[in-house]
Amino acid sequence: MMQIAPITIPGIRSIAICAGCCVTMMSCGGRSGDDILPEGVLAKVGTDELTVADVREVLPYSLTGSDSAAWCRSYVDAWVERKVIGVEASREIADTRRIDRMAEEYRNDLLMREYRRQMAAQNSCKEFDEGTLRAEYDRNRGMYRCTQPMMRGIFLAVDSRHPRLHDLRRWSRSTHADDLERLEKESLDPDMEYLYFRDRWLSWGDIAGRVPGGVDTNPDKLLKLHPGFEARVGDRVYMLSVNEYLAPGEQMPFDLAREQVARMLASESAADYDRTLRDGLVSRAYANGLVRINRTLIPGQDTASVAVDN
Asked: Among 302, 164, 174, which residue's Cα sits nearest to residue 227?
């Protein structure tokens, strides 16, 4: 039995694939014998070849050892089956024009979408100045609303036996610069988790997820009545001090909506470019004579948009 050289895949161990156990040839319910194939070819059906490079491109990186060998055997078997059935189908189905047309249309659609995607990525505006972002935000304020509770504040997680636990609680709720400086110095303790986010917005889930088991309470009710919460889990205390809070459905301030505004403008820019690209290509094709219309069959057709009445 001929042995195929090991396939070396970056990131995993080399895999020796045996052609005799990889290649399945379906014929009258049995398997064909091994053929001597060109170097690097694992299987061949008619003029179609499956190469080592083909398998290397699709082999999952997470597989190693016997799992990789089994996956390769299965892949080669499936490839052979598809090709063999395809050969038989082309013999039995006399009129393949409809299938050929569908395949060509599908291929053209894939090419068209990939071309438009690449051109839009290369040519649409990716960055917007602050004035443009602010103008979009002011024009469509109603679009930018919170879908989840958002907040600004300070979060602490500390040992319940910490000697300055009371001070930590007081400092985290204070707005005085001296208290915040004391809190930051104390937070140098590696056993203490300190998260300052008074300068940015975080979701309730970002905070509640830091508490083992989560926080079993309604954030809207809790934070409207209190400026935060304190929970004890095991030997640790988790404290949240909230300075600003936005409930779901509330208007986003500009600094919170900024990224969403930028994504909206980028999407609109890409769509505008795509329309311009398509219109320009079609117009040029008409001007260059690439497109020709039988106007005797399509009365009044003077543009690139063709409508045929059945």
From this structure: 174
- Total Cβ atoms within 10 A of residue 203: 16
Q: State the virtual CA torsion across 198, 199, 204, 208 in degrees, nearest 10.
A: -60
Tens-digit pLDDT profile for residues 60-94? 877 777 788 888 889 999 999 999 998 888 888 88
Q: Count other Cβ atoms within 10 Å, centred on residue 129.
A: 8
Give the distance between the most distant pair of CA atoms in the chain.
93
Give the residue among 77, 72, 70 at the shortest CA–CA distance from 26.
77
Joined together, the tokens standing for residue 270 give: 């890409």
In terms of C-beta density within 10 A (0-12 exposed, 13-18 middle, 19 or more buried), how is residue 238 classed?
A: buried
Rounded mean pLDDT, 222-243: 81
> pLDDT digit string (tens) for 172-186?
999 999 999 999 999
Give the residue among 47, 46, 48, 52 at the shortest CA–CA distance from 3. Answer: 52
Q: Would you say 154 and 172 are in contact if contact means Cβ atoms under 8 Å apart?
A: yes
CB 43 within 8 A of CB 49: yes
Determine contact, residues 287/129, Cβ cutoff 8 Å. Answer: no
- Taking a C-beta distance cutoff of 8 angstroms, is the pair 166, 154 a contact? no
Amino acid (1-letter code) at residue 92 = E
pTM: 0.57
Residue 289: pLDDT band by 50, 70, 90 thresholds? confident
